[in-house]
Amino acid sequence: DIIPQPLLDQYLSMTDPARAQTVDTEIAKHCAYSLPGVALTLGRQNWHCLKDTYETLASDVQWKVRRTLAFSIHELAVILGDQLTAADLVPIFNGFLKDLDEVRIGVLKHLYDFLKLLHADKRREYLYQLQEFVVTDNSRNWRFRYELAEQLILILELYNPNDVYDYLRHIALTLCSDKVSEVRWISFKLVVAILRKFYANNANALGLNFINELVVRFRHCSKWVGRQAFAFICQVGIFSLCVSMYTFN
After folding, report:
1. What are residue 210's phi and psi, to 5 degrees?
2. Considering the entire predicted model, what is its pTM?
């Protein structure tokens, strides 16, 4: 009743390998690009019509097809709701996390948007995997690490101070020592955001431990880059008033 059945059949047939040879070599990519719009039109109650097609596209041999889906999986999650997302999208999302960097970046750019849609217990499972984003196929791909730092600043609100201290703190400190200055600079903002998280939630002991760690790691660093990092962190910290002046002193 929503769209003519022949039209839907034509759309679903775009994943047929024979179509790629006779119609357009990138027809599967076009299919992947349009899928969230088709899903929105059909509504979540008709997701079963598209599920098999989505899974076929998610395992396509062309990384461009998988990359297209990775960039829009957070939009599809909004359309489908939490139950269908947990059942049908999370396994595909997990697959994208282990894919090529060209596919992983699609997931990474909207990591916060996807994680916030999951239930707290399911979301907590990804704490262990976030550090995997620090490692890339090509170490020169610094924008990947920059994007990770930007996403982590948003993701902080999804986890409690103890989880932030146990898992995200290590990633932030690693990124602060990155070889690329752009990555280091956004990471200083991440460190300050973590401090703000601790003190805003009255986790003063965690905050003090973290400050002491910053002093040991950067203030007393044998390399000037480390000491410079400490100065920058202090600068960002003062401007954003992440802690009281008493604590800062």
Report:
1. -65, -40
2. 0.89
